[in-house]
């Protein structure tokens, strides 16, 4: 690809360029993204990322289309049942933006070398072992990764960008500039550069370094101690301990394993297990692995927007664990 956008591309992405700038759009055009699995969330992410103008996207999915897929995603139809998802979705996905280079893989047995050619990985519908393996590979090869999944009305997204420097510009209205140093558990300001615009408007160009943990570190060590007060912890969404407990399970549908991990997770988070609502626990158990298109739209949209932000280097990224509660419509972000 050329270093500069063509006139046709500038016209096509005009609204986006006005939002985040020509440099950001050019940066996105040079990116190579791997999307693992085209379930409900994967479909939503694929749509958004393809339309954004990312240069190359490879979809890796070994699943075949089932009747359940028909109600949770929009790249497949009744005639596609029994076909590989990637084969069914390929023409529809390419039609959305012919300028994006697309690749499709259905052999899930990939060695580490396969992943080394990507700038970013987005993975959905993975089991316990596959999540850990893929995060290990992404860390070893310095590749940012997102994980996302849903359980009926509930969903989550996990972000591991390893280390990411975000540059923000903020007006300085006569107040002192931000000080260098730690501003939260995983973030620190490493640079503040003042700038004066042509109209004498003063701007602070602030570089914030975001440090991340692996999904295994978060599962084993995530704690609300030092993040929230005791009063705030009592109001934390039940979806947080339920989701973390499920992610720890090698076999989440095993009721005994799930209950055991839920108890461990509540103690780890400093949440009293007795405060969890019975109906939330029961609904979560019933809906494990179920996909709802509206929920996928919300969590897939959040992941897609963050991917676009970091590829275009236009805004600070999410850091690092998000849960969505489809009952209350809350979507809190936890920095573990």
UniProtKB/TrEMBL annotation:
Domain THIF-type NAD/FAD binding fold: start-end pairs: 13-333
InterPro entries registered for this protein in UniProt: ThiF/MoeB/HesA (IPR045886), ThiF_NAD_FAD-bd (IPR000594), Ubiquitin-activating_enz (IPR035985)
Pfam families xref list: ThiF
Recorded superkingdom: Eukaryota
Protein name: DNA damage tolerance protein RHC31
Species assigned in the record: Nakaseomyces bracarensis
Taxonomic lineage from the root: Eukaryota, Fungi, Dikarya, Ascomycota, Saccharomycotina
């Amino acid at each position: 690809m050329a270093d500069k956008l063509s006139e046709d591309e500038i016209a096509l992405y005009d609204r986006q360029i006005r939002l985040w700038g020509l440099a950001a759009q050019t940066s996105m055009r040079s990116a190579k993204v791997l999307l693992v699995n085209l379930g409900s969330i994967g479909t939503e992410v694929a749509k958004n990322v393809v339309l954004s103008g990312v240069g190359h996207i490879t979809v890796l999915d070994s699943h075949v289309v089932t009747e359940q897929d028909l109600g949770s995603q929009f790249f497949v139809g009744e005639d596609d049942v029994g076909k590989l998802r990637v084969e069914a979705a390929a023409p529809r996905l390419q039609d959305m933006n012919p300028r994006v280079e697309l690749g499709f893989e259905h052999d899930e047995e990939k060695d580490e070398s396969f992943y080394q050619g990507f700038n970013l990985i987005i993975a959905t519908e993975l089991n316990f072992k596959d999540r850990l393996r893929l995060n290990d590979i992404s860390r070893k090869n310095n590749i940012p990764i997102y994980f996302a999944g849903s359980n009926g009305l509930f969903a989550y997204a996990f972000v591991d960008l390893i280390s990411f420097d975000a540059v923000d510009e903020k007006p300085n209205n006569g107040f002192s500039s931000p000080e260098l140093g730690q501003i939260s558990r995983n973030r620190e300001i490493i640079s503040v550069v003042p700038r004066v615009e042509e109209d004498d408007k003063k701007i602070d160009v602030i570089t914030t370094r975001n440090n991340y943990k692996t999904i295994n570190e978060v599962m084993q060590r995530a704690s609300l101690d030092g993040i929230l007060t005791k009063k705030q912890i009592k109001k934390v969404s039940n979806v947080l301990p339920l989701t973390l407990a499920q992610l720890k399970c090698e076999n989440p549908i095993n009721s005994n394993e799930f209950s055991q991990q839920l108890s461990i997770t509540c103690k780890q988070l400093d949440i009293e297990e007795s405060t969890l609502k019975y109906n939330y626990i029961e609904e979560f158990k019933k809906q494990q692995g179920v996909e709802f298109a509206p929920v996928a739209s919300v969590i897939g949209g959040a992941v897609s927007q963050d991917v676009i932000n970091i590829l275009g280097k236009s805004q600070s990224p999410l850091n690092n664990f998000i849960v969505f509660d489809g009952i209350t419509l809350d979507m809190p972000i936890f920095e573990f």
